[in-house]
Write a structure and sequence with these properties.
single chain, alpha+beta, Nuclear Transport Factor 2, Chain: A, eight-stranded antiparallel sheet, 10 helices, 8 strands, 51% helix, 12% strand, PepSY domain-containing protein, PepSY-ass_TM, membrane, transmembrane, transmembrane helix
Amino acid sequence: MNMVSALKWFHNWVGFVISITMLIVLTTGVYLGSVDLLKRTESLGQTFTPLTLEQKAETVVTVFERYPQMSTVRFPTKHTPYIQASTRGKAIALDNDLNELASSASFDLPFYETAFWLHRNFLIDNGGKYINAWASLAGGIVTLIGIYLWWRVRNGFRLKQTLPKNTRSSSLLKSHIQLGLFISIPLFILCVSGFLITYNKLWTGALNQKPAVQSFPVSQGNNWLSQLNSAQQVWPDSELVSVSKPRSKRGKKPNSKMQANANKPVAQVFSIQFDDHPGVWLREADRISINHTTGVIESALKHSDRPLSGKIASFVRPLHDGLNMPASYVALITLVSLIGTGILSFSLVTFCRRKFGNKAKKAT
């Protein structure tokens, strides 16, 4: 068996097995992406009115006091014209006067929880996410092999073959090839990023870059107006878009040292996020860490100042699920998932016809 034959065998048989798992992942991805898009396109009757630093400081104080379970406060922007208090899977929208407009919890939506865990781990708890990860990686490899096999016999694009004219295997196969070429690159990125989200130790270290030592403006402890003003002075031309609480570490049992320190005041280091310019793709990527208790700015790091490895690592999750990315990107990956669902459906039909249909004919 030569290399091309081996690649065809791998592409066909491994692709068939992977297609079953990837069909689940892509189908649920279409649903999850559609839900995200609907949320992003809802303005809740608000028009964008920027807040002053005084209003932002008052908003942070009020929202964190009113909703202690929320971890992030986002200020109005052109793409989201209302204040938002959020935590994992939950969000509350408010107008500029802090009147509640709407509240939502993703898992309260019909089929959302089932779709999410099907997408994440096939409803097989912890072991399922590793099956998902390796299936995603194999899907990326199959995509590259498909491109290579097409390249060997390429004869240009044929737009008229993009949609199948009928249900014959030849028509489905031609549509598979044309559609596959259109989405091959974003599909490969979705596959590889899905793998890396599970094996996050391969890339999260690149995010732990220590910013260069700098001198920062001094602000008052426990005073949000003073601290937001100091943070804005660090990057006067950037838009201050959100403030996040420090995340509590879950799952750790308190030891004797932790119990001894339980009554000591805890310094809360908050993260203040900025957008460097209005057209930025990765939003909230520039961050300042500030000790709210003392008012000391501990670090400031812009996405543009990261090394290449850090910039790439910053995009791993956003490229996969659209987190902090524009709605246009979410629409793109949702469309890719939809087309991918069609391609895999065509593949399964043609493969089963060729492999199992021929055996049935021979048996008769």
